[in-house]
Give the backbone structure.
Amino acid sequence: MPESPEVQALAEFLDARTRSGRIEGIDLDEFRALKTRQRPLTELAGATISAVRRFGKHLDVQTDAAHLVISFGRAGWARWNGEAAPGAAPVIGRIAVGDDLIELTDAGEWLSIGLSVVDDPAEVAAIAKLGPDPAEPGFTRSAFDHAVVGRRKQLKALLQEQESFAGIGNAYSDEILHAAKLPPAVQAASLDEEQRDRLFSAMTSVVRDAVAARRSIPPHELKAAKVAAMRVHGRGGEVCPVCGDVIVDQASSSTSSQHCPTCQLAQP
């Protein structure tokens, strides 16, 4: 699943190459991907792009006609001018900007990507309910405490809750908890002030460092760069780079979680 560092890199990449460009054509092979049936993609034909921005894990293409919000979900992504990594996902849509082409892909067993034509990104429900974004300079400790203090929810689930923290998904939640030396199943309400200090510091540093590290990487290389940078996520059975213990893999029907049982030992 694309998370805020990768979507931010994609937004910056596309903004630098398409700003002031004209949308020559836009189409979908899979009609179910369009979430605003009353507003067809043809509204954007001939429009000029004024900016490409990120909201959480969503991409906003702003034009002089309307906004195109692309929600990638679990398996959606975009590629530039046909550049694709080995085993690339099928293309389900295309946006022609001048002589360039943005291809929208989806690798899921069921359709994951969604497109919305709106006058304001906040018209998309998933964007309207987004919580504060740890990647942003304005993310504060008070906003963090508001989402964490007293919450009877496991940390792993809380970090991925978009209403609490925008942009964090399965992978970076594992990385944040490892950096904070906190187990994924502990409830947020049980954390003391020192543990919350560690979690806040880990959240901001992991996300912002990843944003900086992904910057300027072309879209088709971002997934590989993300995977290579993971310290614990996706590395079940491997050695923890901090303490040398074996990383534990906990899988469920819909997702997986990895943590170090020594670094992230539950406190009594």
Remarks:
- The chain has a mean pLDDT of 95.
- Residues 49 and 63 are 4 Å apart (CA to CA).
- Residues 193-214 form the longest helix (22 residues).
- The two ends are 34 Å apart (CA to CA).
